[in-house]
Give the backbone structure.
Amino acid sequence: MSTEETFDIIVVGAGALGVASAFYLQKNNPDKKILLIDRLLAAGQANTAMSAAAVRNMFGSSTNQLLTDTSIKYFEHVQNDLKHELYFEKTGYLWLLSEEQYNSENAKVWMGRMKDSGIQFKVYTKDELKEMIPGLNVDFANDEEAELMNLKEVAYGLFGPDCGVLDPTRLVEHYLEEFKKVSHVKPRFGVNVEKLIVEAVPKLDLPGEPYVWQNKRVTGVKTNKGIFKAETIVLATGAWANELLDPIGIDSQTKTKKRQLFVIHAGEREGLRNLLYTKGFNDLGCIPFTILPSAGVYFRPQLQEKGFWIGCGDKFGRAYKYIMSDEEMVPETSYYENSMYPVLSKYFPDFKDTRATNMWAGGYCYSPDRIPFVYEDHGVIVVNGASGSGIMKADALGRIVDALYRGEEEAQLYGGKRINAKALGQKDRKVDLETAVI
């Protein structure tokens, strides 16, 4: 016989968005009993752990700029003032752009909005880049392979000094520890939510209810550990949201794509070590998180491992998945060797003959405009559609979830900036389209 327990709020999903939401909900609603659950055996072990864990405020949308810039400032506060080590390193972001890309209308709007929002950035010329990064190939003249591969020559670099990388596990630990300090209920792991429970309000105890003419709402979750009831369910399951929302008739408007990361160690290769410890961009004396002009290939420095994480934001040709399956979480060695490596080694020849020493895969949960969703629908508050940038928006989104729950018109973000609590909703959405997508 299954057990049944009652809470005020149940937060489903203990990734970055779930733990941040749980913390702010409990902090600002101290009398509420809030249960945080996840199907895995620890917090932050699904797509949060699979992330490149990079954070940037360099977005083309002023909405995303607000969400990320305030979150990044909070991460700095956690590390510097609260002394919780996130391994947040301001490596900076370096977008390598072709002549055409730099002079495009999208780039002009992007830089204009960053300037208006007070987002710091600097433009480097090709000559400046070549001087700072001797291992960067900026000349594809007479290179038939590069032409065949549709590679664009580097003409400019767009650099954001306030961007960087962090440890996603440490970030999740921060929110989880803070949540536990104020929570009345211990988080539970290994709890798989099988479905959302929909009931008539008020219940008439008629056979087969609820009927279409009855008012109804989500009143709980059915799990492998029993039934949990609550007045509000917060769904922070990202790439798996459709599994729970579709059966009750809520369209999340999101879908997922597989993303993969491959680890390359510099080892004894002098060229790669020189590239890793490139001077002049940041106080760390390392190469920034770098995005190549072609094919969506990027890499980030990993100073602790003395190496690089290589990724790719492939678009056309990589299938969308409506629901993220466990099979999708398997990396493909051939993808690095045949798709990413040829591009990477053309722009940075020091990567020639490298092989990945480790690899993993996860899923991005995409929204149509690449802006996250936060909305309430029949007793469920959904936070998803972060489009691969959930970690860097986690603090802001957690605060918005709490403001929406409390019925506030605005959510106050870190540093005092505010956003309409319903701006990221589906019905009253007030956002601008994101154009700076990796």
Notes: The mean pLDDT is 96. DSSP finds twelve helices and 21 strands in the chain.
